[in-house]
TrEMBL record:
It comes from Fodinicola feengrottensis. SUPFAM superfamilies: MTH1187/YkoF-like. It comes from the Bacteria. This is MTH1187 family thiamine-binding protein. Residues 3-94 form the Thiamine-binding protein domain. Belongs to the UPF0045 family.
Amino acid sequence: MIVAFSISPAASDDEGSVSAAVAEAIEVVRASGLPNETNAMFTNIEGEWDEIMPVIKAAVDVVAARSPRVGLVLKADIRPGFTGQLAAKVQRVEEQLARLADKEA
C-alpha cells in the first residue's frame, strides 16, 4: 500500500514557516527504511499497514513536540499483493503520456 500524508503544526515559527517541524517529520519517515518520497504537498510512503502506521504516528509525535495542535491528512492506495508501486504507478502514467505524444506527432 502507498500512503500519501501531510503533517503540519498549528503553530508556525516567528516567520510563519512550518518547515523545521515538517523536516523533523520527514526525517522520521526516511529513517524508517521504507520506500518514500516527498514533494511540495505530501510525503508518500510504501509498505504494509503495520509498517506504515507506526512511522506516521512517530512523525506526528515529533511535530506535536513543537506544537500543541497538529493537522494530519492521509490518503491511501490499498492494493494487496503489489509492491514497488511508488515508482511503478508514475512510470505507467509516463508511458501513457508518451503514447499520447506519439499520436499527436
